[in-house]
């Protein structure tokens, strides 16, 4: 199971909407299956970008430095299926990744983020929980510098730690579920 903060979840979902109908994606880093770093990447595929998400070796290099700098483990690549379901394609499975993170935009205004664990030719769905980011150190993707969220108190940190511990042990804690909303892609063009 993966845990993602509301902030990181929103970055991915906004990017998915902003780039639609093209595919887009990026890299995810974290610690112990908690996603703490998101590095969005522009689609470099030379041909039809509505069908394929392409990365260059420069992107991989940038991702490596991003992860090292913030002491994050590599978790995987995420990418969108602008008109499809969030299920790995045959092509996705040729990349020999342990995890695949896919955003399905078949219902454009109700996108779904799925995580898949790949074992050979078989895939298993991993749960993703979205939690509030109060008290979490977040990485500003523009400056690349980690910054503490404002007004972080000791209680908030403890609350978050407990929340994450409960998630890991399989209890169902109180967490913030992000409801789908109407995204306005026209106001966002950073990754177009
Ligand atoms: Zn795919």
Topology:
Elements: E1 2-5, H1 6-19, E2 25-31, E3 34-41, H2 57-69, E4 73-81, H3 90-93, E5 99-104, E6 112-119, E7 122-126, E8 128-131, E9 137-139, E10 146-148, H4 154-168
Parallel strand pairs: 1-3, 1-8, 4-5
Antiparallel strand pairs: 2-3, 2-4, 5-6, 6-7, 9-10
This protein binds zinc ion.
Radius of gyration, rounded? Answer: 16 Å
Strand content: 25-35%
Helix content: 10-25%
The number of helical segments is 4
Please provide a written account of the structure.
This protein is an alpha/beta fold and 192 residues long. The protein has one domain (2-178): 3-Layer(aba) Sandwich (Cytidine Deaminase, domain 2), CATH 3.40.140. 24% of the residues lie in helices and 30% in strands. Strand 9 and strand 10 form a beta hairpin. The radius of gyration is 16 Å and the shape is globular. The model is unreliable at 144-153 and 170-192 (pLDDT under 50). It binds zinc ion.
Provide a short characterization of the protein structure.
By secondary structure, this protein is α/β, with parallel strands linked by helices. Helix content is 24%, strand content 30%.
Key descriptive features of the protein:
disordered C terminus, 192 residues, globular, binds zinc ion, two-stranded antiparallel sheet, Cytidine Deaminase, domain 2, 8-stranded mixed β-sheet
